[in-house]
Amino acid sequence: GAVVSQHPSWVICKSGTSVKIECRSLDFQATTMFWYRQFPKQSLMLMATSNEGSKATYEQGVEKDKFLINHASLTLSTLTVTSAHPEDSSFYICSARDLGAGELQPQHFGDGTRLSIL
Amino acid sequence: RKEVEQDPGPFNVPEGATVAFNCTYSNSASQSFFWYRQDCRKEPKLLMSVYSSGNEDGRFTAQLNRASQYISLLIRDSKLSDSATYLCVVNSWPYNQGGKLIFGQGTELSVKP
Questions:
Q1: Dist. CA A3–CA A91, nearest whole Å
Q2: Which residues of A fall below an 8 Å CB-CB distance to B?
Q3: Beta bridge partners of A50
Q4: Residue A102: which residues within 8 A CB-CB, separation 6 or more?
Q5: pLDDT tens digits for B38-71?
Q6: Residue B102: alpha-carbon gap to chain centroid
């Protein structure tokens, strides 16, 4: 089945560091990828929609200069958390849309990245 | 009001019990509906899609009531391995027109021996 690979799975770093997270669709082309954030005991919140070859669409309240998204190819999207602070500590999950799969399998999720900022 | 609302949980049930989760959504234009399962510290995994006519997959039965904007999931003969958080998910508009998934807060299920 379709697989989305997300890397790294766990990051611990100092406050002020920028962290890049990669999301790859391994066996399908993804013109659209999604980035979510999940805080403990809360649901997934969509941060932005990443479209290959164009600017990402950010959800209300998400700072585009803080969370840089690049979707340069049909199989790779990256999220960079710039100058991360402890409040950015969260579980970040990407997903990719395989248009060929139809509505029965809307998005394939990566394994998630647990980000801890000290 | 949240776009997708679920039972607060947690649900603590014995093995073999039948448990039902409910979910309501606010956008009447929503097109497709899903139940996802999320294990602790893991990514969500699609459990089943929800069709207007209702659908069943083994011990799991999903129902959709568009008039009431209500979705349900029934788990029969619950197993220890069913312990997880169950997420009600709604796609706001047709998938092939750029729809996006809206997740409910999730309902935690704990099945005890």
A1: 19
A2: 32, 34, 36, 42-46, 49, 91, 93, 95, 99, 102-107, 109-112, 114
A3: A33
A4: B95
A5: 998 888 998 998 988 889 999 999 999 999 999 9
A6: 12
